[in-house]
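During the reporting period the student researcher (J.K.) took over the structure-prediction task from the postdoctoral fellow and processed the backlog of single-chain submissions. One of the processed entries is reproduced below for the supervisory committee.
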Amino acid sequence: MIQIKNHNGTIGISENVFATIVGSVINNCYGVVGMASSGAKDGIVSLLKKDSYSRGIRVNAAGDDALVIDIHIVVSYGVNLPVISHSIVKEVRYMVEKVSGFRVKKINVHIDAMKVN
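J.K. obtained the following structure tokens:
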């Protein structure tokens, strides 16, 4: 649970909420075909479906209303990897900060696999 404290009290937001926001943003990014699972029990690759938006995403509090986000993805063969990574970082940072009011301190994009069509 990530918490915001202000003069009205404390607001707690689950990490899963942030992971779902991030997953929905990634679903709209060109070249991303799936999420890499965070655990061996989930298998190697989970395709982006609404029930798996939070797979492969870890959100941690970095203090002072800031977040650190780790993203594990699978991309299409032949796409420009630095461009995809930069696009994901830009879009995720914008949306998370807009929706939650938390500052995104760092986003780590891990490209774990490449899918050949």
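The committee noted the following: The chain has two helices and seven strands.
J.K. will present the remaining backlog at the next meeting.
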